[in-house]
Amino acid sequence: MKESAEDWTRATVVPGAGEGTLARIGPVVLLVGSTDPEVVRPYVDHAQMVAANGGQGRQLVRGFALMLSTAVEQSPGFAALAPHATGLAVFVDGDVVVNVGDERISGADSLAWVERLIPWPIDEVSVTLPGADAADPSSSYRLDGGVIQAAALVVPAGAPSGDSMMMESAMDSTMGVPAEELMADAPTGEVAAVPSAPAAPPAPAAPEPAVWPEDPAAPTPPATPEPAMAEDHAGHDHAGHDHPHPPAPAAPAGRPLPPPQADEQVQFQSVLIGDLEDDDFEPLPIVDDPSVIAEAGGAPREEVRGVFCKNRHFNDPRQLFCAICGINMVQQTPVLVNGIRPPLGVVVLDDGSVFQLDTPYLLGRDPGADERVLTGDFRGLPIIDQSNQVSRVHARLELRGWDVVLIDNNSTNGTFVHIPKTPDWQRMPPGAEQILVQGTRIRIGHRTLAFNTHAGG
Amino acid sequence: MPAGDLTDQMLATDFWTDELVASAGIPIVDIPFVTVGSGIGSFVTVDYLRIAGVPTSQMRVLGTLDHPWQTYEYLTRVSQIPRGERLRSDSASRPDNIWGFPSYGFAEAMRTFNLKLLWQLFSEPIFADYYTPKAGQAFETMEREKNRIGYDEMLVKGLVRIVRRRYGGGYFTILTPPEGASATKRVAFRSQYVHLAVGYPGLKFLPELQRYRTEHNDYRHIVNAYEAHEHVYERLMQQPSTVMVRGGGIVASRVLQRLMDDRLLHGAQTNIVHLFRTYYHGTNDGYGNETDPRPGGGKTRIFMRRRGENGWAYQGFNYPKSVWGGQLKKQVRGLEGEQRAEIYKRMGGTNTPWRKLWQKQMNQGRREGWYKVLVGTVDDMQPNGERIVNHVRTAQGTVPVEVDFVIDCTGLEADIAEHRLLKDLLEHGGASRNPSGRLNVDRNFELIGTRSGGGAMYASGATTLGGYFPGVDTFLGLQVAAQEIYQDLAKRKFCKRIGPVRSTIQWWKWLFGSKP
Fold first, then answer.
1. Given CA atoms B108, B111, B112, B114 in this order, what sign does their dihedral have?
2. CB–CB of B203 and A354 under 8 A?
3. From the CA of A212, how many Å to the nearest CA of chain B?
4. In whole angstroms, what is the distance from residue A222 CA to residue A220 CA?
5. Model pLDDT, residue A442
6. Can you give the pLDDT at residue A302?
7. CA-to-CA distance for A399 and B4, rounded, in angstroms?
8. What's the Cα-to-Cα distance from A391 to each of A369, A377, A382, B354, B474, rounded to whole Å?
9. Chain A residues close to B273, C-beta within 8 Å
10. B204·A325 Cβ contact <8 A
11. Which domains does chain A have, with CATH numbers?
12. What is the nearest CA distance from A375 to chain B, expressed in angstroms?
């Protein structure tokens, strides 16, 4: 009896021979009535995606429903199974028969698909493609993870094979197999090696679809292993497999151990969201009318006097070239008009953090507590420094017209500026103002900030 | 409408009478020669004419720039060539000296007494990279020449709105002075000769860049190489990041060198993803790789091809060297229409000089894996937190590439009709386009179709590319154009001829810095 998602994930899956594709990815089991890689790939991809997200039955059903309702081609007929909190989600399309205990589910009598949630506990589950023989529950074949050719499957009744060596995840699937077998059948880690039985071979060893997780059509450009994509693949292949128990109990001597995983060394405590005691979350507001958001969006943007380039982009009247399209500003007689001020540049702190100057800033040890930050007139730019030379609010950056002005806030230890093409740092007189030009550096305590603007002028 | 502004009647009239301009309340200034632009093109031309004996009272330079190299310096500085750095492509001439002697290299070697530099000049390009001057050297020498010829006496600041032919000969050039500098909104310059050196109408940033900026109001993650973007380098020094560089031209190579310098010398942990649109893997010409099909059939001519590898097209010189005085100059001078456009296409195309140090850095980057190459175009850019997801369309399909910054070095040039003054000349001034789409000039750089009585209008610089003389948008090209214009004006008795005696005397004057 399988009484929970966990039991299901650990259950034995016995494949039956024939024309079709069987995939077992984490908790998701999928049987498709085709062996054409092109046809089968979207289904396997979706199964992988669901497995990577933890194998939720609802997601599986919704995804396949969406896929079928938007697909142009006739589906080859398939069945997919995934556990849910209250039962086993079954999704059947086409002439495929799923038997759960005494219940028979088939898509043959339905115009669209059939989906059911069979409440736990669950007895024997079998899935058979049209025209294929049902798989034999007493067979010694089994699939612990991966994609193989098969036309039927059965999940036998009874307790999950209590074999303590048994690993549920595809990654560790070789663990349940005698070492000699493993050696003899080394090529794929994803397909469980089975003892080579003479009768009714269901083509277990590396059938062609077994390469799917690699996705042959992945548009990887030549000679460019793009880092972001590589991570992406990694996520699909390995992320979804839950490890409810620490893997690798003591292995018998002479058995090759899987390489140790770096992750296992990390100590952490896992807290489910449901266990959190924060019950006072307010749901985010749902807004029907987008104009409401625009009004609520912070302080109103300030207007400045500027000029339009010939392509109607608003610019600083001192600019040579338009900041948006790059056209020379001489193409249009400059006429000063009011417009919303674009960001005037950025301040780069010496740790690399960048602050866009679309609003004034308060700089200091603890600007967040200042009233002006709380009312939203200023944004805080905390300067964390061990030297004890930074005042609570040390200085402020204001935007005036098209200029960025640094104003010392009568700080105890002073604000220093270094203007390009001048030899030295200068301490600003208390309360003094300084208009920043491209490349100006600001020093507060032991921290340095650089002002940069795209205007450049 | 305030007095002294252009009237609708004026805008609709191709030939203006003195009465028409006067009745609009626009004051008229008489001057025989005006040059429009106030950049290096204007500077080189008035320099030539000053040496040919024209006094400053006879010429005016109209434009918005304070000094001739202002735009040039701005563009080189933001594309990573500040004054202390060497210009990227070679400089066969110097805009402050019409004789070209002593050259930048010789002058620098003499001033710093650098024998190594002399050897480089002697052995280039076989044993050494081409010598190029420091940007600052070009600006400082220009400043000296500017003061020598009394450039500031001729400079009138303002925006040139329009040039129209005058009924009875000559031209009216309408200037909009800065606010408050004159009693009326416009001032008209009535002149016999007009010279246009307005340069590029501007850059044209990529449409997806413009869209990203207007949609997301984010100016800091995606920058153009031709605008100030120092904050990117600043940030890269602090945090290991990934940068996408787009483009395969001279600016892209300079930006890459800056990124690599920062990495190798200052310890920045930058990963570079370089996106080419066209990937060159062997000999090529302006049509692409040698193996690519040519529109008119045919193959890359063996004497007109250049080296290429790793995606780049390397220039033999910054332009085929024979355009200056060799067989290519002669050949292009005799070609018309389609044939001329075709040879321009062959010579053209994006390319960059091969530099030893830079090549070493690139190879190291490839070996160590922090420099990667992609080939394709970008369909869309979306912010993702603090990063940018580029949807890059490659031959293998669309891939998402997530980076921290994008530096766009493609720098498309805007069409000449984007320039208001040129557009008006095309519509009302009788000017036309050449086979390459730019302003159509004759062999003496007179704008074809714009003659007005005894007056003539000339143009030089990038707006005239595609004419009978290639390479107009370089220092030497501007000087060649100035020489042709001077010769034409000498025939018209506006200036004296620079014969052997005048030339020699003037060179000595140049050397000692006394007024021409």
1. positive
2. no
3. 18
4. 6
5. 92
6. 78
7. 37
8. 13, 20, 11, 52, 54
9. 224, 226
10. yes
11. 5-246 (no CATH), 303-340 (no CATH), 346-452 (2.60.200.20)
12. 24
User: What are the tens digits of pLDDT across the range A410-438?
Assistant: 888 889 999 887 888 899 998 899 999 88
B235 to each of A349, A352, A441, B75, B221, how far by Cα in Å? 8, 5, 14, 22, 11
What is the pLDDT at residue B433?
A: 92
Instruction: Report whether pLDDT(A248) > 50.
Output: no
Shortest distance between the Cα of A381 and any Cα of chain B, in A, equals 17
Looking at residue A57, what is its pLDDT?
Answer: 80
Residue-range domains of chain B with CATH: 8-61+140-201+415-434+474-512 (3.50.50.60), 71-139 (no CATH), 203-278+352-413 (3.50.50.60), 284-347 (no CATH)
Question: What's the confidence (pLDDT) of residue A457?
Answer: 45
- pTM, two decimal places: 0.65
- Name the A residues in 429-448 with CB < 8 Å from any B CB: 438-439
Per-residue exposure over B286-323, b if at least 16 CB sit within 10 Å of its own CB, e if not: bbbbbeeeeeeeeebeeeebbebebbbbbbebbbbebb
pLDDT at B24: 92
How far from the centroid of its chain's Cα atoms is residue A326's Cα? 36
**CB–CB of A352 and B238 under 8 A?**
yes
Cα dist from B406 to A110, A278, A417, B273, B481, whole Å: 52, 41, 29, 9, 38
CA–CA distance, A158 with A171 (Å, rounded to integer): 25
In angstroms, the Cα distances linking B289 to B150, B276, B282, B313, B395 are 49, 14, 7, 9, 17
B375 contact residues in A (CB cutoff 8 A): 221
ipTM of the shown complex: 0.72
Mean pLDDT of A285-290: 65
Average pLDDT of chain A is 74
Q: Does B213 touch chain A (CB under 8 A)?
A: yes
Q: In A139-211, which ranges are continuous DSSP H helix?
A: 179-184
Collect all residues of chain B within an 8 Å Cβ-Cβ radius of residue A358: 217
- Looking at this protein, which amino acid is placed at residue B232? V
Specify the pLDDT at position B337: 84
Would you state the pLDDT for residue A164? 40
| pLDDT of A217 | 44
Hey, what are B424's tokens? 């008006």
Average pLDDT over residues A266-284: 66
> Does residue A227 carry a pLDDT above 60?
no
Question: What pLDDT does B148 receive?
Answer: 95
Per-residue CA distances from B57 to A420, B146, B149, B155 (Å): 38, 16, 12, 11
> Which amino acid, residue A402?
W
Section A90-117 average pLDDT: 84
Put simply, the answer to whether B220 touches A322 (Cβ < 8 Å) is: no
Q: Does A308 touch chain B (CB under 8 A)?
A: no
Low-confidence ranges of chain B (pLDDT < 70): 1-2, 88-92, 296-297, 316-321, 412
